[in-house]
Amino acid sequence: MTILGIDPGLDGAIAELTEAGELIRVHDMPTLEDGAKGRRAVNPALFAAIVYNSHANAAFCELVGPRPTDSTTGAFGFGRSRGIIEGVLAAAGIPPTVWKRGANIAPGKENKDSARSVAISRWPSQASLFARKCDCDRAEAALIAVAGLRGERPAMTGEPCIA
C-alpha cells in the first residue's frame, strides 16, 4: 500500500510513503510556465504521472485557500492548482480522506523549519531530501502523509485538510 502526502501550491511537494510510514520518495510539485500570462502553474499531466506511477491507495492533502492579501489573479491560480490536485486524485480513484495536522507543527511560514527538523529526525537516512531551507514543503508533504496514515485527529492546530 502506498500513501501520498501532498503539500499543494507552486512550491509544494508530493511524498510517497509505505503503509508502515517508510519514505519511498519525494517529488517537488511539477510546474510549468504555462499559466495565465506565462505564470508558473501546476501542470496536470506531470502531476497525474506522479500520482499514477505511485500506484497509491490513499492521499492526504492540505486544504488550502487564498489569503485576504492575495491578488485576484493569485487566488484564481491557487484555486486552479487545488482543482488539478482534486481532479487527478478523483480520476485515479484515490478515496478522499480528511485529516488534521498531527506532527505538532504550528501553522505559519515562521514554523516551516520545524517541519524539516521533524522530517530529518524521522527519516535520518534520507535527510538530504530535506537539507535545504526550500525543502520545507517536501517535509510537510511527508508529514501530512504520516498524519493521514496514523489517522491522527489532534486538537485543531492548523487548517483542516482534505484530499
Can you count the helices?
A: 4
CATH homologous superfamily title: YqgF/RNase H-like domain
Beta strand %: 15-25%
Q: Order of strands in the sheet with the most strands? A: 3-2-1-6
The CATH architecture assignment turns out to be 2-Layer Sandwich
Question: Could you give the topology of this structure?
Answer:
Elements: E1 2-7, E2 13-18, E3 23-28, E4 31-32, E5 41-42, H1 44-54, E6 58-61, H2 72-91, E7 98-99, H3 112-122, H4 136-150, E8 161-162
Parallel strand pairs: 1-6
Antiparallel strand pairs: 1-2, 2-3, 4-5, 7-8
Description:
The protein is an alpha+beta fold and 163 residues long. It has a single domain, classed as YqgF/RNase H-like domain (Nucleotidyltransferase, domain 5, 2-Layer Sandwich). The chain is 35% helix and 18% strand. It contains 4 helices and 8 strands; from the N terminus they run βββββαβαβααβ. The strands form 3 sheets. It has a 4-stranded mixed β-sheet. The chain has a two-stranded antiparallel sheet with strand order 4-5. The chain has a two-stranded antiparallel ribbon with strand order 7-8. Helix 1 packs parallel to helix 2 and helix 3 packs across helix 4. The longest helix has 20 residues. The chain is globular and about 40 Å long. The relative contact order is 0.23. The C terminus is likely disordered.
